[in-house]
Amino acid sequence: MTDVGADPPGSFLAAVAAGPVYKLLGKKDMGASSLPPMETPLIDGDIGFRQHNGGHTDEPNWPTFLTFASRYLHGPGELARPATH
Q: Is 26 in a helix, a strand, or coil?
């Protein structure tokens, strides 16, 4: 079962369309231009996508989201540590 109301193909195409802008800014796109099989995470770039089977809920995507987001979100003080020489 897929959540057609959330338009996963449209969400994917929007992420693909954002890819050239990310590349222009020195970031990495998703590395894919065709909709991957369900449950396939695309999280190696700076844009992420994953479609789960299970209807209108975000719960199955949380582990993948946390893996993706952990590259950008850090605990207090982690980004502000001075370099040691």
A: coil
The pTM score is 0.77
- Measured distance CA(54)–CA(84) in Å, rounded: 48
Cα pseudo-dihedral 65, 66, 67, 73, rounded to 10: 110
**Tens digit of pLDDT for each residue in 1-21?**
556 678 889 999 999 999 999
Distance CA 22, CA 45 (A): 10
The span from the CA of 45 to the CA of 37, in Å, is: 18
Q: Is 49 helix (H, G, I), strand (E, B) or coil?
A: strand
Task: State how far the Cα of 40 lies from the Cα of 48, in Å rounded to an integer.
Answer: 11
